[in-house]
Design a protein that fits this description.
Cro/C1-type_HTH; 12 strands; about 350 residues; 5-stranded antiparallel β-sheet; 3-stranded antiparallel β-sheet; DNA binding
Amino acid sequence: MENRALSDEQLQIIEDAIKDVSEREKLIEYLGRHDVVGKEIFAYLNITRAEIWDVIYEPVSYDVFIKRIPIYFYHSDGQKGSVGNFSQYAMGIYEYYADDTEYTENLEKLYMAVERMHYQHMLDLKTIFNYPIEQTGYCSRTDLFMQWANYLDLAGKYGVSNKTPKYFIVEYNYILERAGLKPIIYEIKEQYSGEYMSRTGNVIRVEGTFPFDDNGNPIMKWIGLDVIEPTRIWGKVDDRSKGYICIEVNSKTAIYGLNCWGSNDNGEDCWHRLYVGPLLIEFDYKKLKECRNRENLTQKQVAAAIGSAERTYQKWESGETTPDCIYLLRLMNVLNIKEVDELTSVSIE
């Protein structure tokens, strides 16, 4: 085919992105002869780290390629605040999607998001590729990158001028609610193996990435914690919204965590009980009988084993009275009960 003449706008994109004159002329000549641009273009132009595009590049028409030239030819200088690039976010997609079709579809969404950021929202590529890293401390948080792209689209719609808010997760949720959309709920972080909180005295501490308001208070409606009747709640986060929340508990406090040990079987969110104050716990006499029957023991045998009168034990099983802490521990030992939950229920549930 005859060499295609590129438009002034297309030539300007190429000139702005490629400073080497010979490389630029070589690319213009190539684009003039090809309708579709394949992976070979990167090796043809001797682009640094061309091998990465073998993984994250899909052939596109020449006009789409030209529009994306700033993305392909962007180089981070590796200095503080300038370490991000497109391939990092593309690899984030690659690691998540095993299916080639899903990967290709989501890679295209990423390209289109960067294009909107650059051409529509007028952000330079250094900002585009590094702002999510500044917010999270990670180079491949494609999920937050796409949230930011959505934030920018909504910000344009609602006249919000701040394109790079200091605390992104807060401003993003504000604009989601303004648009009538569901905000992001930030779940607490597992601290130890299967443990989601630590306790010192009557203060319980949970860690994670949390939204805080301008006064330094946690925005609890956006946090995966349901706290009932606390004495007080406070906390602290850094510039990346990572930190902790402290809950001073009392005898009537109850704390539930969202999806701490997974969602329901149908995939729906599940609230798990993390702490319940003693005044909310009730002895369940029906469970006591179930546990005794499970161990094939008589009331007389259990009473003898724990050192109580048989009539006293019978009153526990009938619900007339409840055992104190000492007898409760003895019952757990005799009936092979590992968790006190097996003999108690929570009055607020």
